[in-house]
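Page 37, continued from 36.
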């Protein structure tokens, strides 16, 4: 919004959007909208700062839906933008403990991968991490297979389990660069953690016709742990290999 515009809204449609979405007359509520200036972007920023948090969150979600519906998508940066945007929405909704899904990203141009990422994030936005566990497992299978090939390792077999892929990647890290003792401990413990995901994926997720799913709280803990390790590997991979 650097130019002062908000998407493709005119002054009239900007006002209509607020009235139709949350029943607010932006012209008739200067205490909410006029705190920064008169451009649409400044009026929106003023509303975000001064509005009731739950109403602000609803407006932000509706703006994103409008953006998606009107083809404002930028595939190269959209996943990163979406993650940052909805982390802000979560704070307004009082969900400061929302799962940080920034590490779940389309790491290479691939339409199937992009849809997989979008599907996982839809369930996380809906507060359903237990529903997305099977796709988190699939995502990690793809992610570590890609990392291994990126650094010259052999292609992973279709039936090769997740913890074996993680182990191969860890071996590449150890062979090609010196890791600190702490890094060694972190990545070594991750192998056993990913191995434990296999029975959870098979027996307590929607991967199969399982009568009992993992409890949401435990699923959230798994997501937090896995995404934290994905962020760590992304950081260390960039530092160790991009030189």
């Amino acid at each position: 919004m650097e130019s002062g515009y908000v998407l493709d809204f005119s002054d009239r449609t900007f006002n209509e959007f607020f009235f139709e979405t949350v029943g607010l007359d932006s012209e008739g509520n200067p205490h909410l909208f006029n705190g920064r200036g008169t451009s649409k972007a400044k009026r929106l920023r003023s509303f975000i700062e001064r509005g009731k948090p739950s109403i602000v969150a609803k407006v932000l979600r509706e703006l994103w839906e409008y953006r998606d519906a009107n083809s404002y998508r930028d595939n190269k940066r959209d996943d990163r933008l979406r993650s940052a945007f909805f982390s802000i929405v979560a704070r307004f909704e009082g969900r400061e403990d929302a799962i940080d899904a920034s590490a779940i990203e389309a790491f290479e141009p691939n339409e199937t991968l992009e849809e997989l990422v979008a599907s996982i994030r839809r369930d996380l936005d809906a507060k359903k991490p237990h529903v997305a566990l099977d796709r988190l497992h699939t995502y990690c299978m793809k992610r570590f297979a890609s990392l291994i090939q990126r650094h010259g390792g052999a292609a992973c077999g279709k039936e090769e389990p997740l913890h074996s892929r993680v182990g191969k990647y860890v071996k590449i890290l150890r062979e090609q660069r010196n890791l600190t003792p702490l890094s060694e401990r972190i990545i070594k413990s991750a192998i056993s953690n990913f191995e434990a995901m296999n029975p959870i994926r098979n027996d307590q997720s929607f991967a199969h016709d399982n009568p009992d799913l993992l409890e949401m709280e435990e699923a959230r803990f798994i997501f937090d742990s896995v995404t934290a390790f994905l962020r760590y590997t992304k950081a260390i991979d960039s530092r160790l290999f991009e030189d």
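The chain is about 65% helix and 0% strand. Flag for discussion at group meeting. Residues 161 and 184 are 21 Å apart (CA to CA).
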